[in-house]
Amino acid sequence: xxxxxxxxxxxxxxxxxxxxxxxxxxxxxxxxxxxxxxxxxxxxxxxxxxxxxxxxxxxxxxxxxxxxxxxxxxxxxxxxxxxxxxxxxxxxxxxxxxxxxxxxxxxxxxxxxxxxxxxxxxxxxxxxxxxxxxxxxxxxxxxxxxxxxxxxxxxxxxxxxxxxxxxxxxxxxxxxxxxxxxxxxxxxxxxxxxxxxxxxxxxxxxxxxxxxxxxxxxxxxxxxxxxxxxxxxxxxxxxxxxxxxxxxxxxxxxxxxxxxxxxxxxxxxxxxxxxxxxxxxxxxxxxxxxxxxxxxxxxxxxxxxxxxxxxxxxxxxxxxxxxxxxxxxxxxxxxxxxxxxxxxxxxxxxxxxxxxxxxxxxxxxxxxxxxxxxxxxxxxxxxxxxxxxxxxxxxxxxxxxxxxxxxxxxxxxxxxxxxxxxxxxxxxxxxxxxxxxxxxxxxxxxxxxxxxxxxxxxxxxxxxxxxxxxxxxxxxxxxxxxxxxxxxxxxxx
Length: 493
Fold this sequence. Notes:
Blueprint: E1 2-3, H1 7-15, E2 21-24, E3 41-42, H2 51-61, H3 68-88, E4 102-103, E5 113-114, H4 121-135, E6 139-142, E7 145-153, E8 156-164, E9 169-173, E10 177-179, H5 200-207, E11 212-213, E12 218-225, H6 237-241, E13 245-248, H7 267-279, E14 284-287, H8 296-299, H9 301-309, E15 319-328, E16 331-333, E17 345-347, E18 352-353, H10 366-384, H11 393-397, H12 408-421, H13 428-442, H14 451-468
Helix pairs in contact: 1-4, 1-10, 2-3, 3-10, 5-14, 12-13, 12-14, 13-14
């Protein structure tokens, strides 16, 4: 069974053939964050590049917490996974000579990022994966079903409880459950993630007592369109890779002198620099008028359309930007084949923590991680066989409960608390207040499973982890501990 239908989940499901797979998804197959991904997929496919260089860049951004074995797997497998995606029907952008076009993004020393449709890479990948899953005889999909909880028989995960949109309760047995539920972006008031990304898999795994890791590391994308949208529209990193610059309302190109790579510094560096300007009462803009200009509609059609909808013409005027919650480096702790700490449980994609990203993710490594480790998890499940699973008393007693009533006010308070207290810049008193406030909000929830409950529980886990790490590292920045701890003295939660 696979819970979630993004790139990680569908890749795993396809790799399990010929074993029969049920894919449970909250919405339509192919929903979640993957189709929203404008950035590309990183792979060392150029002659001047190498997996070793890709690995070095990944580690340089990761704040010293990357797992070396996971980084090696990620970067070594990248060219093979790109070829597999092409064989599946994914169309990457090519030049007049027919060769694939490669872009450079923040933290990369080479041009190694492949795109589709300029800024529609995730949508193109999902088009191919959804089509392949629909055609696969071994894959069955249950759409519009909210996965409520994992079911354990002793230490082993043996199934999932779910509730469909029409109120039907589902109790599904499976010898292997793969979580591919995505991240936690909607826990924050400002996010680039779609509404369904509410930390469900993380909360489910925590309630089942699976091991979790690196929860404090939340990546805030520096350049979300600051036009009042919810979710905020992403302005892809590729814009800065092609020469777009950041300026404030005084015309100061402030990243020059702030970091040797200026706008192409790691995302956490750029996000904090923008945050500081905004907190000082300035406004910040991404100016692509010189770098992209009249070619904007052809080169970045998704971004161009979003800007025009909001009355902005990026061909001739700078675009207002602000940081937004974008990606979670932490999650369910897994090995190199996606196995979690509980027998019968795997995790892939953003809900997992392979250790490949460390404290901060390198741009365009997220789609890559999902396809690399999704494939490995699917192969591992297939090779593990199908140990018998029986309807135990614990399973029979599992019940997702009735659909809750309107919890929108609780959700709004969770999002405000996380943004102001567990956001780009944190401190001890704010994190303590967040833990307490989220505990109060949990007391207002009905006992039945819900997105709101998952958001409260996941938020409290993240806030506690951030409070426990008394240092700044990667995407986790504390104003009361503004430097990394000395080597060997890292303040691990």
